[in-house]
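Lecture notes, part 5. Sequence design as translation. It can be helpful to think of inverse folding as translation between two languages: the language of shapes and the language of residues. The source text, in structure tokens, appears below.
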């Protein structure tokens, strides 16, 4: 019980002081409690936890078919909690420091090629208010490369029409400014004229509303995109992440400015952007061979 009590204190700090989302905190808590259950009667207090205990815990889940991502989340959750115990002087050192989870494969999300995506968006109808709303959301997801959660969280004052920028609340509650295109700008203006018909509460500030006049949630947005993807004959499921990835890929292909794409997407690390935008070794090698004056091979060497 003493071990669980300090876990609850840690989760309260994440929720109320650090303002982590309730979903994230509950996920962290679940992983830490799983570790406590694994220890069972072998360890009574946190001071007795060793690196070997943590290794055995990870190995246990690996044997039971847990993915590398799942084990990585478990380790990260526990490491953060143990850091908290060190800060409180409840333990001297963090036994999770230096431990690594299994290497996870880097999977790249699929993007839609420029011509196909342009044709898809242009073919979307906009005669009915709901059609205008949905097309504006799709255009904005692709135009600005924003996340699903960032789109659903947008308020009326998130948009600056004068310079065509969005104020986006991203991961870690970090705010960033991102540009959006003229096509998206025109559709949002058209939606705002139709939005008044959806308003049930004049105080509602959400940009995109449901038929009930409430903020359109993540799940509803996903369902609307899936609906339009099927209706317009797309072979794959259309989801917000695919539009975000397509935006990043198309901007990078045109500009080759990796840093700009990193800022656009709100990535803390450029290594994330590299994976996200297909900057694999082959692409880098071809760019190097074509651009570096000392990379050009001597024809005699090839004989």
């Amino acid at each position: 019980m003493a071990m669980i009590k300090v876990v609850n204190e840690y989760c309260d700090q994440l929720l109320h002081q650090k303002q982590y989302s309730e979903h994230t905190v509950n996920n962290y808590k679940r992983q830490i409690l799983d570790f406590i259950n694994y220890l069972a009667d072998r360890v009574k207090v946190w001071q007795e936890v060793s690196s070997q205990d943590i290794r055995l815990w990870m190995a246990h889940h690996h044997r039971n078919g847990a993915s590398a991502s799942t084990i990585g989340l478990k380790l990260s959750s526990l490491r953060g909690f143990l850091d908290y115990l060190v800060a409180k002087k409840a333990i001297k050192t963090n036994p999770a420091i230096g431990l690594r989870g299994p290497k996870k494969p880097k999977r790249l999300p699929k993007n839609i090629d420029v011509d196909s995506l342009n044709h898809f968006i242009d073919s979307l109808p906009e005669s009915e208010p709901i059609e205008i709303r949905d097309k504006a959301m799709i255009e904005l997801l692709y135009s600005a490369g924003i996340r699903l959660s960032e789109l659903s969280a947008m308020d009326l004052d998130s948009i600056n029409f004068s310079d065509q920028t969005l104020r986006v609340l991203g991961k870690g509650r970090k705010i960033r400014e991102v540009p959006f295109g003229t096509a998206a700008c025109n559709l949002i203006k058209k939606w705002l004229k139709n939005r008044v018909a959806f308003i049930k509460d004049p105080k509602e500030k959400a940009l995109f509303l449901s038929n009930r006049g409430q903020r359109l949630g993540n799940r509803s947005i996903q369902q609307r995109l899936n609906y339009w993807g099927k209706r317009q004959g797309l072979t794959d499921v259309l989801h917000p992440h695919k539009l975000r990835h397509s935006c990043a890929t198309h901007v990078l292909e045109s500009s080759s400015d990796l840093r700009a794409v990193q800022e656009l997407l709100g990535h803390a690390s450029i290594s994330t952007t590299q994976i996200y935008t297909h900057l694999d070794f082959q692409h880098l090698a071809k760019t190097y061979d074509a651009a570096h004056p000392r990379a050009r091979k001597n024809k005699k060497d090839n004989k």
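The translated text above is only one of many valid answers, since several sequences can fold into similar shapes. Strands lie at 159-160, 165-169, 175-179.
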